[in-house]
């Protein structure tokens, strides 16, 4: 299975600090996506990084991908209380395959 | 209304009941998905519809029956459920059934089976 595994399972930081979450997967992928989920709600797409990309930015988000290590990281800079949520990575291995999600990292940002 | 909507938002049912979950997307997408999210487990894909045809069925028990009457609507019919089926059921859509397409999720239906 190419299921993503996020690390850590939970992360607690203060506002203004940076938060880093990691995702590891088992088989080769075409793309990796990160999603955010506020408590008990639907997921929101954050960013997609393709297997031939190493780094991507979107606002305060920075995603890296290391296909040799089969891992990705999501960095949220200057975190805010509103960033409190669960963060999931999702991988795919084939063009028409559906996404496989990990268990997520729960991020708590305290004011 | 925009995005992906789901009704009801909360549902409590007995094991002998029959109920249906409804999902509607207002994005003009061609692919729709049902996911199950249980505590401490990864999001589980249940069904995928592309252009109203079921293209994936991930070994879901027959007590869950999907229906896609058109590209904007998706239903999940429930009957004789078990307590372990209690979970958050999420509907999603994407432009096409392609892995690099962003998926748009609804807010989910919180299902409790007594």
Q: How would you describe this structure in keywords?
A:
heterodimer; A: 111 residues; mainly beta; 5-stranded antiparallel beta sheet; 55% strand; B: 114 residues; 7-stranded mixed beta sheet; 4-stranded antiparallel beta sheet
**Which class do the helix and strand fractions of chain B yield?**
mainly beta
Give the biggest sheet of chain A: 6 strands, mixed
Q: Label the structural class of chain A.
A: mainly beta
Number of helices of chain B: 0
Computed over alpha carbons, the radius of gyration of chain A is 13 Å
Share of helical residues of chain A: under 10%
Q: In one word, what is the shape of chain B?
A: globular
Average predicted local confidence, pLDDT of chain A: 92
State the end-to-end distance of chain A.
Answer: 39 Å
Give an overview in words.
The complex is a heterodimer of chains A (111) and B (114). Chain A is an all-beta fold and 111 residues long. In chain A, 0% of the residues lie in helices and 55% in strands. Chain A contains no helices and eleven strands. Chain A has strands spanning 5-7, 10-14, 19-24, 31-37, 43-50, 55-58, 61-66, 71-76, 85-92, 100-101, 105-110. In chain A, the strands form two sheets. In chain A, strands 2, 4, 5, 9, 10 and 11 form a six-stranded mixed sheet that branches. In chain A, strands 1-3-8-7-6 form a five-stranded antiparallel sheet, with no helix packed on it. In chain A, strand 9 (85-92) and strand 10 form a beta hairpin. With 114 residues, chain B is mostly beta strands. In chain B, 0% of the residues lie in helices and 56% in strands. Chain B contains no helices and eleven strands. In chain B, the strands form two sheets. In chain B, strands 2, 4, 5, 6, 9, 10 and 11 form a seven-stranded mixed sheet that branches. A four-stranded antiparallel sheet of chain B has the order 1-3-8-7, with no helix packed on it. Chain B is globular. Chain B starts with a strand and ends with a strand. The A-B interface holds A 3, 30-31, 33, 40-45, 48, 50, 88, 92-104 and B 4, 33, 40-43, 45, 48, 56, 88, 90, 92, 97-100, 102-108, 110.
